[in-house]
Structure formats: structure tokens, C-alpha cells
Design brief:
Elements (H helix, E strand, L loop, with lengths): L10 H21 L13 H4 L12 H12 L21 H13 L10 H18 L12 E5 L2 H15 L9 E6 L4 H9 L7 E4 L9 H13 L3 E8 L11 H11 L2 E5 L24 E4 L1 H4 L7 E5 L2 H8 L9 H5 L18 H35 L4 E3 L7 E6 L3 H13 L6 E5 L2 E7 L7 H14 L1
Parallel strand pairs: 2-3, 2-4, 4-5, 5-6
Antiparallel strand pairs: 1-7, 6-7, 8-9, 9-11, 10-11
Helix pairs in contact: 4-13, 5-13, 6-7, 6-11, 8-9, 13-15
The structure holds pyridoxal-5'-phosphate.
Amino acid sequence: MSAEPPRHPTPEEFRSAGYATIDWIVDYLAGVQDRSVSPAVAPGEVRAALPDTVPETGEPFADLLADVDRLIAPGITHWQHPGFYGYFPGNSSPPAVLGELLSAGLGVQGMLWSTSPACTELETHVMDLLVDLCGLPDRFRSDGPGGGVIQDSASSASLCAVLAARDRAGGAAVLPDLRVYTSSQAHSSIEKGVLVAGFGADQLRAIDVDDAYAMDPVALRAAVDADMAAGLIPCLVVATVGTTSSGAVDPLVPIAEVAGPAGAWLHVDAAWAGSAAVCPEHRGILGGLEHADSYVFNPHKWLLTNFDCSAFFVADRAPLLDSLSVVPEYLRNSASDSGEVVDYRDWQVPLGRRFRSLKLWFVLRTYGVEGLRAHIRHHVEAAGRFAERIGVNPRLDLAAPVSLSLVCFSHVDGDAAGEELLAALNATGEVLLTHTRLSDRYVLRLAIGGAQTTSTHVDRVADLVDRLV
Ligand SMILES: *Cc1c(COP(=O)(O)O)cnc(C)c1O
């Protein structure tokens, strides 16, 4: 008896299935605007239609793709639909999809430089290109003590910032005395990261915000001073540039003036808004970033690169590596021991890592600086026009200052009327918007960011709003 290998698809079968898959994706994206943005499925309906068992013998690829059409596509929320305005859109583009495909085809693990040198070096290079492209402070470049790394999500990146800040301040020995500060509008990932890092919920201070929902630096100073007077140690301040609810921008300069003298790490979360820095005219929101210890933004939100691709920068990599470097014997190698190479496993929580820089590199080269700026500017301008339409509608109020491509608005008749309007808009199938609460009011959010979303689509939403309100 001998155990034979399985029958793998032949190269020719792979090639033709691959062409069919690309055709499927291209046709899907070309026709997605004719679909309803949200699927009309009840809980459990998708699963109930799926084959119950793994087939005993393999099936032809054509059957798989047919089942995607028949069973999966009807249950998809179409994030690449031009009418998708929910949460923050997660955009994509042809070069990003192809970079992702190449990454899968290569199937490399980039945990160490030596496990695939080009995977590490392209990533370092692309992160330095982002510093130039976005006008970020030089301290985030890899040729000094700092540098950048691609993480799976802003949540993971912020967790790494929490860990580095915790340990720089003394780690486990002083953990009960450490305090973390962020605004009441910060993303939930900050609280989650703080809890995962072993802090109690009461060690996180939620700082008040001003009328525009940005962190109040005076309140921050009061909280930090009070804690220091009580013998506690401020170890981390997280500022948000572009909050998730309303796009508010925390003022980095006065926040840094509190964090720095207190010895606290300053982390800046610009997950969504950071992409706008490709345009020089939007870089003002990052004024003061040169005082930050770490910074994260998500090309997977608004820079034409599909999930996952989160750009995380540190001004000094030493504390990060001190927190996250654990070297077992089986991963020791001469390149790492020489200290001449970057081993990105030490810059993140997991060991293994995908070759994510390929897709970002493809996006940067395909669109060029001009294309990337046009993408951002088109959306920002469309948001401005939409906000003007809201402003002249007597039944609607702008609920917060327009932030880049995010418009928040509420119904003058109150929460129930706002909820009804959102439901009516989404019931058209043409658009998907989501909501938030600001100052205890129900607020609709129009977050513009899809690769296929143009000002014509946005004008159409304004028409729908006028008709349905
Ligand atoms: C979307 C968002 C996050 C979370 O991003 P992930 O990459 O999904 O973890 C964090 N912070 C802000 C401000 C966000 O808008």
C-alpha cells in the first residue's frame, strides 16, 4: 500500500479557472451598481442553502463559481457598490485585487527577513513611500530609529501602541498605576486594546469633547494632572484624527503639550481620515504629528487598497520591539542575529504575516500621486455639495461640521423621524447609510469613499433624501 498524493488541478485547469474567476470579478464590479446594496436575506437563509457535506470526491471549478453566483452573491452586502455609504467604506481597486492575487500565488510568510527578503524589503520601502506621499514626519521613516509596518487592522496597530506604551512606562511591575487617556469619541478598538493589554476598564480615562466632538485638551490636562497628583502614571494618550462617529479631529499640538511633559506615549489614530493626507491641502489635520510616538491609518478604508492593509508607524521602534520580540530557537538565523535586517514579526502580535505590500505598491504605481489625490478630492467635493443640499432642507440639520467626505445629519422632528428616513433610504436598495448618536441625537452618516462612487451617485442620494424626508 502506498499513500498517493491528491490529484491537484493541472496548470491548464488552474489557468482556465483563474481566467474564469477574473472574468467573474470584472463582471461583478462592472455590474454591481445594478444590484441592491443590501441583501434581502433572513438569518440562516444563506447557510440553509449550502451543501451539507464535504464532497467525497472533488468537484469541477465551474460548479464552485456557479454556486458563488447562486448561493453567495445574493447574500452579499455589496461594499464595492457605488451607493455604499455605511460605516466607513472599505475600498478596493483593480491593482489592489491583482496584488492580493499575486500574494496568494506566492504564498510566502514574511515573518522574518530571512523567510522572504523581498517581502520585508518591499514593505519597508512602501512604508517610506507613504511617508513622502502623505507628508508625514521624517521620524516615521525607516532610515532613523523609527519606521513603518503593515498590519491587518488599525485595531491591531493600536493594540501594539498600547503594549509598547505600557512597557515603556514600566510594564507589569507598575501596571495598576498606569493610566490611558482618549476622548469619549475614540474608536472602540482603543478600549478593546487597553483591555487586551491587561488594564482594568477604570484605567482608561474618557476625556470630554468640545462642540465639534474633538478632544478638549484642557480636560485632558486636568485628568493627567489629577492622576499625577495622586501618584499615578500617565502612560498613553490616544488622539483621533477623524473620529468614526463624526470625523472630528483632536487637536494634536495641545494634546502633545500635555502628553509629552507627562511622559506619556502619544498614539494618533487616523484610520479613515489619514488617507486624505495625500492631498497637501488636507494635511492641516495632522499638524503636530511630529510629536507623536505612533500613527496609524488605513489604506484599506480610503486609499483604493482592499482590506487588509493598515499602515502603522513608530517614531522609535525600540520600545515596540522590546514589547513584542520573543525569539525561540527554531526561528534564530544569522541575518537576524547580525542586526542588519528588519524582522516584522517583532512589530506585531502574530508571528505569520501576509505579503500585503504588493497590493499597496501596485495601487501607488497604478494611480500615481495625481490619481490618488483626484480620488480623495472628488469625494471631498461631493460631500460638500451634499452638505449644501442638507443645509437648505428645512427638515434636516447638519449634526456636526462636515469632515472631509463624511456628512452627519439629523431630522428636525427627532430620533424616530431620523430612523424612518434611514430605513426608507436603505429600503430603496440603491444606497446603504448607517447611523450614530451625537449629543444624544440620532444621526444619519453619509460616508463617501467607494472606488466607484462619483459625485453623480452622491447627488442621487441627495435627491433620494429630498424625496423621502
Ligand atoms: C475604522 C476605524 C478603526 C478600526 O479599523 P480596523 O482597521 O477595522 O481595525 C479604528 N479607528 C478609527 C478612527 C476608525 O475609523
